[in-house]
Amino acid sequence: MSNHLLSLLIWLPMAGAVPVLIAGARGSASRWIALAVAIATFAASLLLLPAYHTDGAVMQLVESTPWIASLHVNYALGVDGISVALILLTSFVGVLVIVGAWDVIKDNKPHQYMAAMLVLEGLLIGVFCATDALLFYVFFEAMLIPMFILIGIWGGPRRVYATLKFFIYTFLGSIFMLIGLIYLYHKAGTFDMATLAALPLTMKEQSWLFFAFLIAFAIKIPMVPVHTWLPDAHVEAPTGGSVVLAAVMLKVGGYGFLRFSLPIVPDASAHYAWLVIVLSLIPVVYIGYVALVQEDMKKLVAYSSIAHMGFVTLGIFIAFMLVRDLGNVDAANLGVQGAMVQMMSHGFVSGAMFSCIGVMYDRLHTRQIKDYGGLVNVMPWFAFFMVFFAMANCGLPGTSGFVGEFMVILASFSANPWIALIAAFTLIIGAAYTLWLVKRVVWGEVTNDKVAAMKDINGREAFVLTAFAVVVLAIGVWPQPLVHLMGGSINHLVQQLAISKI
């Protein structure tokens, strides 16, 4: 089983989409099949934990089969600690979005919705497993298709505009990455990512490749100024689409930096690290103020995601400053570890926040903050979860939101106290827009008859929110298992940052 576990994780959900479609829209068979497939995928992903040896630095559970033999392209898979963590995140969220959409999508082509979710899950796992650059690119591009369908069919009134903007932005960025990969193929004669990482490149070559990768992954995260597609996509996407988009798809950008920019073009990444650091700090302040004035709850959380993902790129690229300029490998390790913990934490917290917004929208069919108020009086259990996830979004100690941000700030302080000061400002501005949201939606008196008639969360919704809450609390209280899982891989990656190719 372990020899083909990665292929199972990729193709099980995609193959499972077929019987879901065959079951059709009648009855609940398609939903039960989709849930069974999602649970089976999550159970299979848990097998990665005993199969993966955390003290190893090389790819494990490797699979390799000739795919396009004439071009030396292989169907090559493998995982390290970073990949394992992100696969677990993907499969965990996959179960919750199926459960979350159980009654919401039941009258609107539920079999097609569930099938699209399963295909998207398989493609995302493929991105985190691929060790051949062309295979990575195929999964990287293909995942746009089910998300395009999810937003375009089950989205809001402006779904066509949002889907086109989402697709054009992300597809355009991918073209630059493809050009860079083709150039590397002509230099190395292969798309094997380990071979590409060892390829000697001049500073000029590295610089062009760095910006090709930067454009592709900056759009996916997204970073300022190529972030404007995200709020529109979130606002128009169905709840499940928003959860997957925020919890998993944004992480592909950060993962791409770790897999391509750092090992393949380390000198250019070190030279231009200041640029990425600046682009990472801008969302901390600017996007925070933009979030403060939003009246749509989804748009507010979407802008919050941009700000929090700025910590990911800051933690990754501050490592270059720490290693190359200061020789502080321990602090660099801390920064990259913080970036990865932040990626995982944001996946759970943002997924939970969008799930909470979905609960409210399913009852009142509006996302405008002004239409709510006093929910604690009529939905006390929902209010408990909403406040808890809001605190995690603020970075409250004891929740996962605090751990990653604190680690990145601590590493940044070792590099430059001013960078740390600006980064820490997000704790203030983040608390401002999040608590401002909670104050207007949860607290106060009920002034709307429609709000007064809202019912508290049901068992299905309680299951989804409880699952998110348990993980957010567990990482916040005891982050060591997650840090240990990724530690060997991160340490190996940081050690490589000190090695110049020129």
Task: Walk me through what this model shows.
The protein is mostly helical. It has a domain at 272-502. 76% of the residues lie in helices and 3% in strands. It is built from 24 helices and two strands. It has helices at 5-23, 29-46, 48-51, 81-100, 110-129, 133-142, 144-154, 159-188, 193-197, 203-220, 229-236, 239-249, 251-264, 266-271, 273-292, 297-325, 329-364, 375-378, 380-394, 400-415, 417-441, 449-452, 459-477, 480-497, and strands at residues 60-68, 73-79. The chain has a two-stranded antiparallel sheet. Strand 1 (60-68) and strand 2 (73-79) form a beta hairpin. Helix 10 packs antiparallel against helix 13 (251-264) and helix 17 runs antiparallel to helix 19. The longest helix is centred in the last third of the chain and has 36 residues, at 329-364. The chain starts with a helix and ends in a 5-residue tail after the last helix. The model has no long low-confidence stretch (mean pLDDT 90).
Task: Considering the chains and any ligands shown, give keywords for the structure.
502 residues, single chain
Oligomer: single chain
What structural class do helix, strand and pairing data support?
mainly alpha
Low-pLDDT stretches are none
Tell me about the largest β-sheet.
2 strands, antiparallel
The number of helical segments is 24
Strand content: under 5%
Identify the overall geometry. globular
Enumerate the strands of the largest sheet in spatial order, edge to edge or round the barrel: 1-2
Give the averaged pLDDT, no decimals.
Answer: 90
Number of strands: 2
